[in-house]
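Example (one chain per record):
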Amino acid sequence: MDLIKVVNDAFANEKASGYPKFKAGDTITVTYRIKEGDKERLQKFRGVVIQLRGATPATKTFTIRKISNGVGVERIFPFSSPFIDSIELNKVGKVRRARIFYLRNLSGKKARIKEKKMNLVKEEA
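Predicted structure:
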């Protein structure tokens, strides 16, 4: 039983290491596979990360929230899911909390998250 757990953890670590580092407040796009009958397609879900949860990559999950047609939609993704094709980091947000559930009660301009300013040093060739 322990050997199976070790193999699963190793697989989860390998898969999760290919993802960009992100935290609560960041805007990401998750591309995941959907199987419908014998067909398979890719669908993108873009939103704000409202929480990261779990200690090991095998049990780690993250929750993304977006507003679709005026309705808030949240989706929980496991890090080690074989259905996740890719994760793309769109914006780095500046928030003070690790879990930003207060975003659920806000709408419009109040629900915006400040973007973190990144200091990029250009190298001269």
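Caption: Residues 2-16 form the longest helix (15 residues).
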